[in-house]
Amino acid sequence: MAGDADKILIFDTTLRDGEQSPGVSLNMEEKLQIGRQLEKLGVDVLEAGFPVASPGDFEGVQRLARELRGVQVAALARAVEKDIDTAWEAVRDGENPRIHIFIATSDIHLKHKLRMNREEVLERAAAAVRHAARYTGNVEFSAEDATRSDLDFLCRVFEAVIEAGATTVNFPDTVGYAVPWDFARMIRRVAEHTPNIHKAVLSVHCHNDLGLATANVLSAVANGARQVECTVNGIGERAGNTAMEEVVMAIRTRKDLLPFSLGIDTRHILATSRMVSHLTGMVVQPNKAIVGANAFAHESGIHQDGVLKERTTYEIMDPRDIGLTGGAIVLGKHSGRHALKAKLEEMGYRLAEDDLDRVFARFKNLADRKKDVFDEDLEALVAEVVLRIPDRYRLVYLHVAGGSGIRPTATVGVEVDGREAFRACMGAGPIDAAYKAVAELTGTKSRLLRFTVSSITGGTDAQGEVTVRLEEDGLVVSGQGADPDIITASVRAYLNALNRLEYKKKNAAAPGVGAMCRTEKGSGR
Ligand SMILES: CC(=O)SCCNC(=O)CCNC(=O)[C@H](O)C(C)(C)COP(=O)(O)OP(=O)(O)OC[C@H]1O[C@@H](n2cnc3c(N)ncnc32)[C@H](O)[C@@H]1OP(=O)(O)O
Ligand SMILES: CC(C)C(=O)C(=O)O
Ligand SMILES: [Mg+2]
C-alpha cells in the first residue's frame, strides 16, 4: 500500500465528525484554537468540516486551510459535483489540501437512503473521484457503512475509485457494528482482493456504538491499515468516534505488537483533550482512558505503596508522556502578564493582546479569591472570556438569599442588547430562582436538557465549572460558566448557552453560500 509502510497517519476529524455530536456547535474562534492545537499535536490530516453543509462550515474550513501549516486540511463532500466544487473552494488555499468524498456501499443504505443500485453507486463514486482529481492529487474516498457492505462489491468500488484517482481509501465502520477479529478479516480481504490497493493508503474510521472503536482500529492497523480516523476524547456522532489519544498511546505503549511510528507529539495530548472538552461542552468522564481525571490516580494503599516503590508496578504509561506535569510556571496573585501569557502559550492558547488583557483582568480577580490558579482554572477563564460568540446577554448583577427557613430568592441583573434590566424570583433552590429570573429577563423559552457541575480543581476555594445543555425549537446548544461561586458559574453557563442559541438562530436564518443554507447543524432542508 502507498505511503511509509511503518507510519500510521493520524487523520483527526474532531472538527467534522466530532462536531456532529448532538449539542456541539463551535464558532470560528473556537475552531481556530482547536485547529492550531491539533497542528501543534502533529496530526497528519485535519478534517476541518463539510463545506456544503453551511456558510459557517465553509468559512471555518477555508480559514483553517489558509492558516495551518504542516498538516493536510481535508474537506468532506458527498459524491455530488456541487459538494466537491464547494469543498475544493474551501481548501484550495491550503498547503496540502485534501478532498474527502464519501458514498454508502451497503445494500441497506443503497435501498433505503440513496435509492440507487450497486452499479449506479460504483459509477457515481468513480465519477466523483475523477471530478475531484481534476482539482488535486490528494483525494480520499470513503465507503460509508463499509462493515455492512458486500466485500466483493466493496473491493470493486475501491478498485474503481483508485483507478479514478483516489490516493486514500477509507473503510468506515459507520454504525459501530464491527468486532475486532472480524474487522481484521475484512481489512485483510480488501487488501488482498483489490488489485491496485498498493497505490492508495488504506484507512479506517470506526464508531464506538459497542465500545469497540479503539480495539477495531488496532486490529485493522495490525492487518494493513495505515491511516486512522479519530477524534479527540472520542467525541462524534452518537456514541462517538475512535478516541485519538487511545490509539496513539496504545501504539506507543505496545510497540512490541504494533511496531509503527507516529507523527504525534504526545506531550500535547492532555492540553488538547481539555481544550476540546471546554470548547465543545462534552465533559470527559473521570475514568476515561488516557485523559480522564482518574486515569493516572492511585486510590488504594497497595497500589500507592507499589507506585511509590516503583512507578511501573501500576503504571503502563508515564503520565508525563501525555503532558501530565505540574508545569514550570505556577500562577498566583503575584504573577504578571508575561507569566500568564507564557503559561497560556504552553497550554496551546495564543491570544491577541486585547484578549490577553481581558483574561488577565479576570485572572487577577480570581487569584485574589483563590490561592493557586491551575491550568484548568485558566482554561475555564479562556473559554469564558475569549472564545465566545458576541454576547447579546451579559450578567451584571447577582444576589441570592437562601438557607434553612428561607424561600430561596435570586435577584439578577442582565444587560440585554446593551440595556440593563433586573428581576427577582423565588425557586426550589437558588439556582432555580436565578434561572427563572434569567428566563424572564431574556424572554427565552428554552428547555434545560442537562446541568452538570464540577469542581475544576481541588479545595473549597476551587472554581466550579457548570455545563448546561438547552433546547429551543429543535436547536440544541451547550454553555459553560466558571467561577468560585457555583451560583454565579451556573448563571454564566446559562447566559453563555442563551448567547449561543441567539447566534445559532441567526446563523440558521442567514442566507446560504449559494443554495447551501441549513436549518440546523447536521440536518438538511
Ligand atoms: C456518515 C457521516 O457522518 S456523513 C456526514 C454527515 N454530516 C452531515 O450530514 C452534515 C450536515 N448535513 C447537512 O447540512 C445536510 O444534510 C446537507 C446540506 C449536506 C444536505 O441537505 P439536503 O440537500 O437538504 O439533503 P438531506 O440532508 O435532507 O438528504 C440527503 C440527500 O443526500 C443524499 N446523499 C446522502 N449521502 C450521499 C452521498 N454520499 N453522495 C450523494 N448523495 C448522498 C441522500 O440520498 C439525500 O438525497 P435525496 O434528497 O435525493 O433523498
Ligand atoms: C463520512 C464518513 C467517513 C463517516 O463519517 C462515517 O462513515 O462514519
Ligand atoms: Mg463517522
Automatic annotation (TrEMBL):
Residues 394-525 are annotated as: Regulatory domain. NCBIfam families: leuA_bact, PRK00915.1-2, PRK00915.1-3, PRK00915.1-4. Its cofactor is Mn(2+). Belongs to the alpha-IPM synthase/homocitrate synthase family. LeuA type 1 subfamily. This is 2-isopropylmalate synthase. One of its GO terms (molecular function) is acetyl-CoA C-acetyltransferase activity. Coiled coil: none annotated. CDD domains: DRE_TIM_IPMS. InterPro entries: 2-IPM_HCS-like, 2-isopropylmalate_synth_dimer, AIPM/Hcit_synth_CS, Aldolase_TIM, LeuA/HCS_post-cat, LeuA_allosteric_dom_sf, LeuA_bact_synth, PYR_CT. Pathway: Amino-acid biosynthesis; L-leucine biosynthesis; L-leucine from 3-methyl-2-oxobutanoate: step 1/4. GO terms for biological process: L-leucine biosynthetic process. SUPFAM superfamilies: 2-isopropylmalate synthase LeuA, allosteric (dimerisation) domain, Aldolase. Keywords: Acyltransferase, Amino-acid biosynthesis, Branched-chain amino acid biosynthesis, Cytoplasm, Leucine biosynthesis, Manganese, Metal-binding, Transferase. It holds the Pfam family LeuA_dimer. It is an enzyme of class 2 (transferase). PROSITE patterns: AIPM_HOMOCIT_SYNTH_1 (PS00815), AIPM_HOMOCIT_SYNTH_2 (PS00816), PYR_CT (PS50991). The lineage of its organism: Bacteria, Deltaproteobacteria, Dissulfurirhabdaceae, Dissulfurirhabdus. Its EC number is 2.3.3.13.
